[in-house]
Structures are given as C-alpha cells and as structure tokens.
Write a structure and sequence with these properties.
Elements: E1 17-18, E2 20-21, E3 24-31, H1 33-43, H2 49-65, E4 73-78, E5 84-89, H3 91-96, E6 103-108, E7 110-114, H4 119-122, H5 134-137, E8 142-147, E9 189-194, H6 197-203, H7 221-230, E10 234-239, E11 242-247, E12 255-260, E13 262-263, E14 266-268, H8 269-282, E15 286-289, E16 291-292, H9 302-312, E17 316-320, E18 339-344, E19 348-349, E20 351-356, E21 361-365, E22 376-380, H10 399-402, E23 406-410, H11 416-425, E24 430-434, E25 452-455, H12 457-467, E26 473-478, E27 482-483, E28 489-490, E29 510-513, E30 517-520, E31 539-542, H13 545-562, H14 568-577, E32 590-591, H15 601-604, H16 611-614, E33 619-620, H17 625-634, H18 639-646, E34 668-672, E35 680-689, E36 695-702, E37 707-712, E38 715-718, E39 724-733, E40 742-751, E41 754-764
Parallel strand pairs: 8-12, 8-15, 9-12, 15-17, 17-18, 18-29, 22-23, 23-24, 24-25, 28-32, 34-41
Antiparallel strand pairs: 1-7, 2-3, 3-5, 3-6, 4-5, 7-14, 7-16, 10-11, 13-14, 19-27, 20-21, 20-26, 22-26, 30-31, 33-35, 35-39, 36-38, 36-40, 37-39, 40-41
C-alpha cells in the first residue's frame, strides 16, 4: 500500500513538531544515574527518586514565583536505556531543573511519523537449508516492535506449531485494553503494551471510535512490519490475487513483542522512549524501529540515546533510513550503533499495458485486480475540471467533463489512492497516474478502487504529448504478477547519505526489500484507508524504509539464533561485509532516484543484504559499548552532552588521541579539506576470525578517484577461530578532488571461500 509512503511510513518529519499543552510543555529529562541511585538508597521505600525530583522542582519554582505553583505532571520514568523521566513542565519548572542535583539535560517531546510472499525467496532463503534449518530456527530470539501495535487475530501471529515454551527470561506482559485481551498473547505474540500519555498530552484524548488505547493496531503499519520480520509461514497469501504464494516473516519462528507508541497523528518521543526502555527491560534481543526524526546530534536525538542504552544491554537495533530521498543528506537514524536500512526493489512487478489511440503502447504498474478497460476518451487538466484538476485533488474534477473517461492525474498534493477516489466520485472510468521528471522511472503500485495504473517519467511524457492531439483515447490491460525485472534497484524515496550531522560513518548501512512488499493487515482497515473503500483484506502491499527495516530485523534474529554468542555489532558487521552491489543481471545496482548509471554507498551503504553469506562471513568487525563511548569523545561533546548519552557515568580518556575514523566500523568515511592538496589520514581496524581456524586473508583495494589507499599489513594470517588481528589503512590524496565532491572505493579481504568487503567514501569539504 504505497500511498502510505507520503503519510505514515515515509519519514520522520524533517522538522519535528514540538509538543505543547497550554502553558505546560512535555519534556524528556535526563538524570545522572549515580545520583538517582544514591537518592533511591537514601529514600528507601518511602518515595521514588523521580517523585523526589519533581517535589524539588515544585518547591523551587514556587519559591521563585512567590506563591503557589502547579505540580509537574509525570508521564513516564525511564530506568533501563536512559535514566530520567518525561513530565509536563511549566517554563519556571523547567528553569528550576538547573538547580536540581544530578540534572543533565531536558529536551522537548516531539511528534514523529511512521516511516511477504516473496521476500525470503528473493533474499535466497530456503526453508530446511542453510540459515533456515530446524536447528537455527529452533531459537528463542525475541523481536520488539515499536510501532502502531498488532492485530492479534491474524494467523501470522498465532502460536500454531510452536512447541517451545515462552523463554523463561522473558519479563514482558500482555496488557489488556480497548478491544485487547491479555489472552491474545501466545507462544508467538508473547507481549503487547501501549504507550499514549505523550501523544494525548499533545493531541488530546484518543478517539476510541477510530483508534484504541491498547496494543490493537488501527492503522496496519505495525501488523505489517511485525509480520515482515517474524510472521508465521502461511500458504495462500495474496492481495486481490496479486503476489500470490506462501507468506512468511524473515525469522518465522522468532517471538514477537509489540509496543504500541504510534497513532494516527504520529509517535510522541516520550512514548517511544518508554516503549524502548520497557522492551529492553522485558528482554528483547532485537528492536525494530520503522520510525525516526530529523537528523540531529546524537545527544539531542532520543532514538540515538535510547538505542545506545539498548546496545549496552546487548540488543541489536535496526531502524528505517527515512523516505525523503533522493536528495542527498536526508538519511536519518544515523548513529553508528544503529543498523540503518535503505529500501530497494525485488524482481517482482505488477505490470499493466497502456495502449494510446495512436497505437503506441506503454508500460505501467498497478494492483488493480479487475478487468481491462475499453478504449476510452482521455481527460486531463482543463478538460477534466477546474484549478488543480491535473492533480485530481478533492472537488477539482467536473462530473460533466470526466464521466465515462479515463482521467490523467499528476502525482503530488494528495495521496495516489485519493486521486483514484476523486476520479471514481466524479464518474470517471479509470485513471492514469503520471510521474514527474524528478520522480523518474520508479513506479509504486496501488490497490485502486477503479481501473488505474501508474507510469514512469518517460511514459508520462508520451502521454502528455498525446493528450494534446484531437480526441485522444486510451485503454489499459492489467497483467497480474510477473517476475524477472532487474533488481535490486534503489527506490527514489529511500533517504540518502551522507548524514547531515556527525557524517563520520557511511549511512545508510545496507539496503533490503522495501518496495511493494506483501504482509499481514488488520481486517478492520481497508487496503487504501479511504472513506469510499470498504474492502477487507488479510494482507496488504506497502513500500518504504519502514518495510525494509523489519526485513533486516528478522535476518538479525536468524543470525542471532545461529550465533548466540555474537554481539549486536558482530551481527551488523556480518550483514554489511557480505552485502552485494551487483543486481540479478550481474550489473551494478542502479538507482531510480539518480541519473547516474549505478547507485553509490550513499544510497545503499555496503550493498544489498545477503543473509546466507552473512551467517558465515569469515571475519567480523566487533565494537564494544566502550568503543562507542570513545567515538563520542572524539566528537568533542561537552561533559553535559556526553552525560546525556551515558547517564553521567563516563569521562573521556585524557591520555590518548581519539579520532572518529578509528571506530571499528565495517566501512570507511574519509573527510578531506577541500582547500588542501596534501590530505592524508590513517585509521586502524581489528577483525575477528569467525570462519576457518587457519586462514590467510589478502587485501584487495579499489581506490577512490584521486586517493591512494595503503593497507598495512596486506596479509592477515589467522591461526585459529576467534583470533583477532589488526591492520592500518591510510588514505592519501593523489590527485585532484572528485568532481562530485565524493569518490568511492572499497577494501576487500579475501581468504579461502570468504570475501569481506568494506566500502570507502572520501569527501572533500
């Protein structure tokens, strides 16, 4: 259901919305953990530390006002991934926090937005073989989803066939609420909670005629993402006969824990933080976050802060890269401890054939499942109605002009399915949806309520030219589901690197299927979510990095089950260094959002995930929590900023020189001075042998334009499994800087059957 790309899944708002309620505003307050621990011990059982802090705020603000002061409204306390609380505070109470011992920082609550039958096969996974053997699938990996909740009645979330009990380490619960019973949980869906205090503080009380104050999903986004990562294997899945086949999540035996923190108006960061904090405390192994905000320094990015706390507890965190591509520096969720996932296509398509009255045929794509149209008159722009008629916005079409005709609509201004709804309302016989030149050839299919299809920019140009002829006509034939298209291709909507802030690692990290993916859907939500659509489905097709993210979450769960002693960083490294950059036609992965013949690491990171190879990568680049702290120190954060990320219990080393490029990351970012001709820098990396015991690896370098790359040593000889060896890699400017400002290359360690690849991005600025 691609139309949600522009609303729910797409992006976190480029500029997050500050949440205010009358004279109070909700803040997330970060406290020094050492102080709160000492305070808790002093108070004993009489009071919680956060109650004591709120009492202090009230007292201080009252004294300063010289009279009575309202009591702060506590929303949540956080004690696992961060130490702090969320509360509605007046300006005076916020100011009083500066006088409270142990206070680190306070940031306003924000409203964030939300960002298969074939995915497993496209990724090369085969049940009973390789990664998906019974041994690897018989695991107790738990994936937590912070999203719009779950539709528990769907068969994809039932415990049929699951004989192993819920892991004894699991501390989560199944919260009862509106239309959600605690009995809905089982061996598959093992936990469900809902968080809405922050949302209601901003948007008012939830209207339970359209949404639920419970973990029940009223939007569909959460059910779709949870099924994509870990839904049961089900036969006969389809959407109106399209994409028919066996549907299964990436890790179909993993456990699911749903944490609802997103609603029709978005996701309040105070709720999201409460959900992440609880998920880690409950015992999840993987966190799937198909959400995000604008790119910002880590110390003000709530998802970055909470995710660092999760990683400290051994949790793998995957997040959507965002859907504001193809412009550069739009990628979000860029902290190096987060696996940032871009979106690309599979080789499955839903073709339609458009035949113009002059005999010219054009290719389109659609999820419409009805019969083909007759040759019918075309209507467009002024011949279809008044102002904005070419965009088919609400009320813009004239029934007298479009009745019985196929209406041509430009993308933009409203959702694609809403355009179809307008055409149907005005009596149109069908719709052609045109891409603009900037939208390129990427076509995203929609389950329209009338005969309709979408076309790329070149076909759109032909249609616009033909419309000006006398008495133009068209017919559309719908050809179901086909396979074999060049893939993967980078989606134009997928957000691009480099990161706009802290651009010291290549982001996104990898790409995964994120276009036209079929997964579970609530029966109460129509596939288009428009007023005139009363259809009920079990599955729906969606696009976005919200969809690609759970693919990687599920793959991480499988690898975690196969290698239970691997850290989150090791799993991330394995997925990155084994990713591929050639499509199914053995050509470089292309990009719908670029005029260049091939995509770059700023579109796909290390490449497209290859789970079978990732399960046996040969070498991994491991990173400890302390390594991440050293990386933060290299960014020259103030003690207060660093304290917000570390809960106040870390001081940067003073006896060593730290540089961001020394983080043991599986890719290389080099930032050169654009005014210098003698740039050079040297980084260090350490790799662990997780393959054959005695193995020799040799480095092969594909140098970026204008840069010499020196690896020392060029040969690594491992004597045993789990052994670590280090190398240095130097980047020396050898010529003029790249005309584009960035040049790309790679270093590949080859040994026996292994190929361990790391991309290089050198940017002059």
């Amino acid at each position: 259901m691609v139309y949600r790309l522009s609303l729910l899944l797409v992006v976190f708002m480029a500029a997050a919305i500050s949440i205010a309620a009358q004279d109070k505003e909700t803040y997330i307050v970060h406290m020094d953990k050492a102080h709160t621990t000492a305070l808790e011990q002093t108070l004993g059982d009489s009071k919680k530390w956060y109650d004591a802090v709120l009492d202090s705020i009230t007292k201080l603000s009252t004294e300063e006002d010289g009279g009575e002061s309202s009591t702060p409204d506590l929303l949540y306390s956080y004690e696992t991934t961060i130490t702090g609380f969320a509360a509605s505070l007046s300006a005076r109470q916020l100011e009083s926090l500066n006088k409270v011992e142990g206070f680190l920082s306070a940031v306003p609550d924000e409203m964030l937005s939300l960002q298969t039958t074939y995915s497993s096969q496209f990724l090369g996974l085969k049940f009973g073989k390789g990664l998906l053997t019974s041994h690897n699938l018989a695991n107790d990996v738990i994936i937590g989803f912070v999203d719009t909740g779950v539709w528990p009645e769907h068969d994809g979330f039932k415990s049929a066939g699951m004989t192993r009990p819920v892991p004894a380490r699991w501390k989560g619960v199944c919260e009862a609420g509106t239309r959600f019973s605690s009995k809905f949980c089982n061996k598959k869906l093992i936990g469900a909670r809902a968080y809405f205090k922050g949302y209601e503080a901003a948007a008012g009380k939830i209207d339970e005629t359209v949404d639920f104050r419970s973990a029940r999903d009223s939007i569909g986004h959460g059910s779709h993402t949870a099924f994509t990562a870990a839904g049961h294997m089900l036969d006969g899945a389809d959407l109106f006969g399209m994409a028919k086949g066996v549907a299964a999540g990436m890790s179909c035996t993993a456990r699911i824990a749903a944490y609802k923190a997103c609603y029709a108006g978005g996701c309040a960061t105070s709720d999201v933080l409460a959900a992440i904090d609880q998920a880690v405390s409950d015992g999840v192994d993987v966190l799937s976050l198909s959400i995000g905000g604008s790119s910002k320094p880590y110390h003000t990015d709530i998802l970055a802060i909470a995710s660092l706390g999760a990683v400290q507890h051994g949790v793998f965190v995957a997040a959507a890269a965002g859907n504001t591509g193809p412009s550069s520096s739009t990628v979000i969720n860029t902290a190096p401890w987060i696996m940032t996932v871009a979106a690309s296509t599979m080789d499955r398509s839903f073709p339609s054939i458009i035949t113009l009255g002059n005999g010219e045929t054009l290719d389109g794509e659609s999820l419409y499942s009805g019969t083909s149209t007759e040759q019918s008159p075309l209507a467009y722009g002024e011949s279809a109605g008044g102002e904005n008629a070419k965009y088919c916005t609400s009320g813009s079409l004239s029934p007298d002009l479009v009745k019985g005709k196929i209406v041509v609509c430009e993308r933009g201004m409203n959702r694609e399915v809403e355009k179809g709804e307008e055409v149907a309302k005005a009596g149109g016989a069908g719709m052609l949806l045109l891409n603009s030149e900037s939208q390129g050839e990427e076509i995203r299919a929609d389950p329209h309520i009338l005969p309709a299809t979408s076309v790329g920019a070149s076909a759109a140009k032909s249609i616009r030219n033909y419309i000006t002829s006398e008495n133009p006509t068209v017919s559309v034939a719908f050809n179901g589901t086909t396979f074999g298209s060049p893939a993967p291709v980078m989606a134009s909507f997928s957000s691009r690197g480099p990161a706009s802030t802290e651009p010291y690692v290549i982001k996104p990290d990898v790409t995964a299927p994120g276009v036209n993916v079929l997964a579970a859907w609530p029966r109460s939500v129509s596939p288009t979510d428009t007023k005139s659509d009363n259809r009920s489905v079990l599955y729906n097709i969606m696009s976005g990095t919200s969809v690609s993210c759970p693919h990687v979450s599920g793959l991480a769960a499988i690898i975690k089950g196969a290698h239970q002693d691997w850290s989150a960083a090791a799993i991330k490294s394995a997925l990155m260094t084994t990713a591929y950059t050639l499509d199914n036609k053995n050509s470089p992965i292309s990009d719908f959002g670029s005029d260049n013949p091939s995509a770059t690491p700023f579109a796909y990171g290390s490449g497209h995930v290859d789970p079978e190879r990732a399960s046996n990568p040969g070498l991994v680049y491991d990173i400890s929590y302390e390594d991440y702290l050293d990386y933060l120190c290299s960014l020259k954060y103030s003690s207060s900023q660093l304290g917000t990320l570390t809960r106040g219990n870390f001081s940067c080393p003073t006896d060593t020189v730290l540089q961001a490029g020394d983080l043991n990351y599986p890719s290389f970012t080099v930032l050169f001075d654009g005014n210098s001709h003698s740039n050079s820098v040297t980084y260090k990396r350490t790799v662990k042998n997780v393959g054959y015991g005695m193995t020799t690896y040799t480095a092969q370098v594909h140098e970026p334009e204008g840069v010499s790359v020196i690896v020392e040593p060029r040969v690594l000889k491992f004597e045993q499994n789990q052994q670590t060896l280090s190398y240095k890699i130097s980047f020396v400017q050898s010529g003029e800087k790249s005309g584009s400002g960035t040049s790309f290359g790679s270093v590949v360690w080859g040994g026996r059957k292994y190929t361990v690849r790391s991309p290089i991005a050198v940017t002059w600025r």
